[in-house]
Amino acid sequence: MSSNNAPIRKDFPADFRWGVSTSSFQIEGAGQEDGKGESIWDRFCKQPGRIRDGSNGNVACDHYHLWPQDLDMAKGLGVNAYRFSVAWPRILPNGSLGRGAVNEAGLAFYDRLVDGMLERGLDPWCTLYHWDLPQVLQEQGGWTSRETVAAFLEYTDIVTRRLGDRVKHWITHNEPWCSCMMGYWENIHAPGGTSFADALQANHHVVLSHGQAIPVIRKNSADAKVGITLSLHPITAASDSAEDLAALKRHDGLRNRWFLDPLFGRGYPADTLELVGDAAPEIVEGDLAAIATPTDFLGVNYYFPEMVKDDQDPKTGGPMRASLVEKEGVERTGFGWEVSPQGLVDLLTRLQRDYNPPVIQLTENGSTFEDVLTPDGRVHDKERLSYLQRHLAALKQAIAAGVPVKGYFAWSLLDNFEWAEGYLRRFGIAYVDYASQRRILKDSGLWYGRFLNE
Length: 454
Ligand code: IFM
Known about the structure:
The longest helix has 25 residues, at 196-220. The strands form 3 sheets. An 8-stranded parallel beta barrel has the order 1-2-3-4-5-7-10-11, surrounded by 5 helices. The protein has helices spanning 24-27, 40-46, 63-77, 88-91, 104-119, 135-138, 147-163, 176-185, 196-220, 242-263, 270-276, 287-291, 314-317, 341-355, 382-400, 443-453, and strands at 17-21, 81-85, 123-129, 169-174, 225-231, 235-237, 297-301, 306-310, 322-324, 360-364, 405-411, 430-433, 438-441. It is of the alpha/beta class. 41% of the residues lie in helices and 15% in strands. It has 16 helices and 13 strands. It has one domain (3-452): TIM Barrel (Alpha-Beta Barrel). Bound molecules: 5-hydroxymethyl-3,4-dihydroxypiperidine (IFM). Residues 23, 26, 175, 301, 364, 411, 418, 427 line the site of 5-hydroxymethyl-3,4-dihydroxypiperidine.
């Protein structure tokens, strides 16, 4: 899309939220500072071969110290909302009160950060869990243990008591698929496991902790809006054959419905439960009702669509007996993810049709490409710019079709620690020169700023 037919801000409702999205472990650094405890990602990074470039989050973007300039940059862009997450091990280095005291210095950091946002006219959107579980809790099973739910509620109570007067948007969890499936089953993320049953049990506890945290947040943060963020994918079948269409339904069951159905009060999808068999999570009476506690919004992170075909070989087809098909000739990001603005329209309209959430917030959307800092001191990231423009055009289309999307948060403000990929992937609309910690708005960031200030 040329910038001539790029969307303009006035195409969107006047009260639309425009934001940037970040997370604690990916940008903060200060890995051992001010009493912070070890997280599962600190531990994971120490295991040889886990992180592609052998890096860790010890320094990252040094946002722990450079946050004033990062917030200045966000303000300069013209966003009115800023999404960040709290690092649990900064608040409870020992995971829970039973094991040790609250770390005042950790709370004080988020006090400063939130005050800094408010001073700059940025509405703070706080994610409570963006994957950095205290390592001590992992030692008792991490999210596979029901005790971690209790610890999360304690942590939520502490954070929302402290920040709840100023933070009015809370996201309990970011992308349970990634923290549970990629962490406990696919062996890609911390803590690094290979058990499907563990992943499903961990996920059950994650969504249970979400539901049980909602009243705690509401108690401590008057008039707060509370939600959860899921990574969701529009899925198509490789052909119209009955087999591939059935594979689509099975894959969608685990990828999307497994999360959406219980949150929207339908329990786990029966067809998927049957397929997971003995790996199904242990569910205690009352859990499903807690998980379905009404929220104010559904947070959606959209990156790419998927195509699947029938595959009855358990080695390649997995428990859903479906495998991914690489589409040929499609545009892809540096990660190899398909670029599909239409996928965003398809996903959002499907969510509205099948689940009818009161409000959807697009809490992440972005892309990684090989960025080059050129001699003119700029990063001419024309692919990311085009990605951003076309996804905003798609968003406009979805809103026109009646989907209640009320906010868009670009992932991410800064290049950062991209989990198992280390610093090899740059998602920022601002380039980070890690050696000097200089930030340089890329062309995509400069355009986002112009778009917001039009
Ligand atoms: O960097 C991640 C983020 O932490 C969660 N959502 C997807 C992003 C890109 O992979």
